[in-house]
Predict the structure.
Amino acid sequence: MNNSNLPASNGPQKELLLAYAGLITICIVWGTTFMALRIAVLHFPPFLFTAIRQVLAGSLLIFFTFLLNKKVRLQNIFQQSIAGFFMITMGNGLVAWAELFVPSGIAAIICSLLPLVVITINIITRSDLSPKPQFWFGTLLGFGGIVLIFSDNLKGFSNSNYNAGIIAIFAAVLCWAGGSIWVNKQRNPGNAFINAGLQMFFGGLWCLPLSLIWDDFTTISWSPEVFYPMLYLIFIGSILAYASYSYSLRKLPMNIISLYAYVNPIVAIFLGWMVLNEPLNLKIGLAIVLTILGIYLANRSYYNRETWTVKGSK
């Protein structure tokens, strides 16, 4: 009997559907976290806030995963702690600190450059390939959108804290991209949710030394502006969304996962305007379009190998 026409097992199909469901989750949820984080850090030290949020979220995710599946084991703890440092401590912690001085919408637009940073890192590590002009055009277009955003906030550059916040966000994007690529290439065995929990837990712990150095503890206040964003970011922004991201990162190619960067800034800009009275005008709208279009073109060019040439070949 010829088995070639028999339907394949639905196991891989189910995993793929879950991975895409996770991608949709982070597309929407992470766009809302910029606003929630902005509200919280204006009333609470940012690195300490990130430490509490991520340690609690990681602990809860590990606990519930063990509760639902007693056969899972803690594996690759050292590797997960390193991933947590780059993606949570540096990626999440630096953005939290930066949002003391930078509006949530601007932070989201800068963070949308993640796919370009991912591609740039891959270019550096894949020295045998050279992108053609389509890639560079998309890259310049994306950064043109960022420049347009900054041109609408020129007065902010007279503030050294604003400048430091912008630099911190760019550094956060670089760290998150590097950590994501590293995790994606490791293909670590073990439960994806346990791994995500370990990354959050250790990433939160790594924030404590930074909190001792940079945080102003006189701003500690458990007001509603801190308590409710904390709950939302623990259960929705971290446990739900980060676990979804960690799972999708193991099941989907990096170019597919990076699609969330197209949606996040739109959600963040709209919510920042609606709730926090952050600016939203024609220039900002055009900047969003240019940035997202540039990211799309560069992303599409990079992952279409026909637009690349091998260095040294004609």
About this structure: The first helix runs from residue 10 to 41.
